[in-house]
Structures are given as C-alpha cells and as structure tokens.
Amino acid sequence: MAVNHRIVLASRPAPGLPVPENFRIEEAPIPAPAEGQVQVRVHYLSLDPYMRGRMDAAKSYAKPVEIGEVMVGGTVGEVTESRHPKFAKGDFVAGSLGWQEWGVADARAVTKIDPQLAPISAYLGTLGMPGITAWVGLLDIAQPRAGETVVVSAASGAVGSVVGQLAKIRGCRAVGIAGGKAKCDYVVHELGFDVCIDYKAGRLRDGQVAPRNMNPEGPDSGEREGRYPLVLSDALKAAAPNGIDVYFENVGGETLDTVLRLMNPFGRVAVCGMISQYNASEIYGVREFRSILVNRLRVQGFIVSDRMELWPKALAELGGWFREGKLKYRESVAQGLEAAPRAFIGMLRGENFGKQLVRLV
Amino acid sequence: MAVNHRIVLASRPAPGLPVPENFRIEEAPIPAPAEGQVQVRVHYLSLDPYMRGRMDAAKSYAKPVEIGEVMVGGTVGEVTESRHPKFAKGDFVAGSLGWQEWGVADARAVTKIDPQLAPISAYLGTLGMPGITAWVGLLDIAQPRAGETVVVSAASGAVGSVVGQLAKIRGCRAVGIAGGKAKCDYVVHELGFDVCIDYKAGRLRDGQVAPRNMNPEGPDSGEREGRYPLVLSDALKAAAPNGIDVYFENVGGETLDTVLRLMNPFGRVAVCGMISQYNASEIYGVREFRSILVNRLRVQGFIVSDRMELWPKALAELGGWFREGKLKYRESVAQGLEAAPRAFIGMLRGENFGKQLVRLV
Q1: Does B251 or B220 have the greater pLDDT score?
Q2: Is B254 in contact with B228 (CB distance < 8 Å)?
C-alpha cells in the first residue's frame, strides 16, 4: 500500500544556515479528504527563502512552524480524489500542501491551473507566488516609469528574474545583481536585462570591467570608512549612469547600503526580502538610512499575501506576457522529497539557478 | 551711517558639532534693492538643524554654503524700501535673507505676513516652515487615522510640537520623545500630548516610571546584543500599549532603531530629520531595517520645499487652528546677530526650548 512521505521540522536551527538535521523525513498514511476537500498528489514542491524565517520561533509576519510539524511550502499537483464539486480527479491545482507527497486541502485553499498554458511547475514560479510578488512589488509599489533605472538583487532568482523582465516591458533600464558568471550571463542574454553585476567578481557581465579604487564622491561617502564593497559600488555606477530610480530589494546587508547611496531623488525601494540577513548570526546595521531623507526616498516593505486582491489582475497580465514569450524562466529541480533539505540549504547559499523546485513524482 | 552686519561661513566644521570659529561676523553696506526687489530690515532670524548640513561641502538635498558666503536662514522683517508694486514700506514679510540684519530679495521670494493674526516670529515657527513641515509629514505623508498612535521625536521642538498637536486634532494618541523634565512637562501639560518620554531619564513624565530590565520579546530582539537603550524601549512600550502606527522622525540613531522595533504592521514613518546624525563623527548603522519588511512599513523621506503646492492649504489650516487656540508654541530667543553662532550650536545640542530664534532689532 502506498504511504505518504513528509518532512517535518526536527529542531530549530541555530543562527546561521540550517543543517540537514533540522529536518526529519517521516512515513504517514495518505490523508483522506473530508467533505469539501480535495486530495492531491504533489508533483512539485517550491523552496523559497521565506521558509527560513518559519523555522525560527521568533515572531515574524507569519507564525512559525512548530517542532514536529510538516514544513510549509507551495505545491502543484494532481487531484486524486475530490469531495468538492469545483474539482474533479485529474485536475491540476496549486496550493500550499507543504513538504510532503500527498496532502488534502479545503477547496478554497487550492487554485486550478492550466497545464496547456504552461508547464505546471511554472505555477510555482513566474505564474505563481514569486511572479506575483515581482508584479506587486515592482508595478504596484515601486511604479517605475519608462526610462527609469530599476535595480534588482538576486536577479536570477524566481522573483528577481521576473522583476527585470517586467522592468523591460515597462520601458526601463534593468540592472541585475547576481552571483557568478553563469547567472549573470543568463540574466543578460536569456532574460534580457541591460546589464548584470556579478557581486562575487565585481565585474559587469556585458564585457565592461568595473573600475577599482575610484572614489568620486569624496570624503563624505561611506567609503571613507572602508566598509563598502567598492567594486559593487563602482559597478553599479557604471551600470546605472543616470542613478537608480527603483530598487527591488531581495538581499539586504551591504548590497542594500551600496544601492541606497546611489538612489536618485524621489526613488522607490520595494523591500521584498533580505535573504542575506535570514541566516546572519549578527544583524547588519544599515548605514545609509540617511539617503531616505536626503533623496526623499519611499521605502516600502510588502508581502504578497497581503495583497490577494491584486492576484487576479497580476496573474492575467503575467499569463499574457508569458504567452507572448516575454517572460522566460529557469528552474533548479531536485529529485525526490528526501532531497528537499539539502536543496533548501543550497538555495539559501545561492547555489540554485532560477526557481528552486523539488520534483516528487 | 547704518551698516549691515552679517555672519558668513568662515570654515567648514570638522565632523561633529560646529565651533564658533566656523563663523565670522562682517560689516557691509546695507544692500539697495534693484527694480522688482524689496529691502528688508530683519527682525527675527530662524535657526534650524538643516543649516548644519549646508555647512558641509558634501552633496545633500541643497547646495552647500560656500566659504565666505552669508549663512542661509529663514527670516521675518519689515520692508524698508520697495521697488515692487506688491509691497509697501512697513509691510512685514517672511523670506530667506540669511544671517544678516538687512537684506534684499526679489518680490516673489518673500511673502507678506499678518502681524494681526500672530506675532511675526510665529511665521518662522508654527505658521512657517516648521509648522508646514509638520503638516506635510504628518497629514500628507503619514496620514494617521483617528485612534492610531503617533510618536514624534524632538517633541518640544519647532516641528515636533506641531506634529503632536496635529495628531491630537486628528484624534490620535500623541507620544513625544524629548530630553529633560522641563521639556516633557511642557509637551504634556502645555501642548497636550498624551505622554512624553524623557530620553535622558528613561522615565515617563505623566508619573509612570518605565519598567527596567524587561525583555519580553525574547532572544530575537535587538536587546540580545545589548545595544539598545532598554529604558527608552520599555518607556515606549508603556506609552504606546497598542504599538506605534506612525513615527515622525527627527533624530535618527538609536531612537529610530528603538521605534522601528515597536512599529505596528502597515505603519508609516515620515523621515523629516536625523539631527543625531548631523554632527556624528561615526555613522550609526540602523539594525532594525528588517522591521520595514516584517511589518510592511512605508518609510518616506521628505523635504517641505519639495511640496510648495501644499503650502497654501497647510497655512490656511494651521492659521485656523492657531486662531482657535489649538496650536501652542514656545520660543528660545537669542538677542543680537552676534549671538547666532552660539545659539545655533546650542540648538544642535538640544539646549533650546521650542523654536530657536535670534532677535535682531
């Protein structure tokens, strides 16, 4: 008889990266749907940075996963049994069934997806929560105008890759920040960003090499303290010669500080994530907060689940652009539920390339 | 024959507080108005924190004062000669004639003021730039709703005192932060704030004493690092039992960090000034930036001169409330131009009480 495998939180991680021992794989009966529910065979599990926050006991914007509970996570899968008239066996649905092979959910907690429009895994990426996150943060919060310069960190990731492509659709200059030559090549040559800065190398990936040891801003710049990654700063100046109007923030830390210094007056910063801080054992102090005053910036944090009313509009637009070939994506797919913990830790280290998924069937 | 006395920037200050030697008093002929200008005998000079920024060579939101130039500053005075039909000798006008006894200005650069409605010095405070700054930051940017909690730092100052009174007019709970018992007593008993925290004593000034050594937020709070002024944090928790919805920021530094930790979801921070940083030789790193993400805050810097289109509406409302007795104020008046440098340095140290002015006649 088939069993359900699921991964539960075994222990809370110490500050820093989680370790595989923080997770435990369990066998359990396949859950049966109650009236009004569907039973789903999960095909893909999404791995996302926010999950790191849920592993801590500390208060954040959502409640923590308790020890022994199944790890939370977005999923797509096939309905194997339905006790709700809206769904039939064989339908494909997106939902949040967590790190397990089988799950049940209330009918209103899952959404039918169209395998004709896109591979079902896309509904965990460009046509799912990450894509809608990009849409809300860029188009609703930051609202770039044609000709403005948009910078996005973690540019090759599930959210960042959509942000840059939306910026191009809006007529903006799109500047990515990513780690490594392969990611930067992808961001420029496949996704169509204007330029991508390899923060690991401090080099532009369109052939230009960032100048080093320049300090054009004089003794008042942050560089007098010798703290900033000069190479990133110089590379950004070269990549955004007219300054930065919009920053879509995924990483935090020194990258945030470096970008803040280069923001144009009346710039907007959409704060979507601060992945560099999720595992940090010491909190980074943001030194360029004063730029918010001097440049009259609007800095706004957001969480896509607060803006559910925007989802239909966002999905319709994303789907349209996807059909037109304007939204490309790449996936890193780990195979089998037992691979999820290491894939998750690797993602937090930046080892994935594009949307990180686990394929369960 | 009468001469004009004026104070020029003699040298740029080292990081930290300016010293009297950064200024030099000069004699000069009284300037004659050209066609379209007015000549003004300055009665009051306004001293404001932003002037510290203008003393540095570094780029900020306005160009620096050059060495040898008259220090910038808002003024009110009497028209002594007019070469523009809109003004007559004897009119009182507000303008920016700087640190000098006499000045000339284009007619469009000065505004007629009404000595019947209020003492002319009020047009440098509650009915001038500081009052309009409070109006724009609180009512246009932060937009508090009735019942929300508004915290303002530098609460007894020219801007902060208006912020809290506007918050009360809007039906909010107004919490001030100020330095010393006298200022806190004034903020609560004269201005009508609900409570004022004396950051120097860490005590509430309505009789409550802040609890000490509490750490209810557990090991993830900033307190684990031992960096925050626990007393301010505890006092704020007591003063804002429902959390903080709006923060009107005048000071920066640890106060900013402490407030950020206590912001409610969807709170707004209007960044008007960071006086603690203007003279700081070391930049403070803001550790609670993550609260912007976790609590989906909107943090917006602003400068009142960017919003000139709001001035007529703001002034009309402020004037109305002033007539109704709802806007009280206090002034610290230094006598004579030569007293300006020390009064300015004292203001940067927080030694003034209410709006800092220099009386020149």
Answers
A1: B251
A2: yes
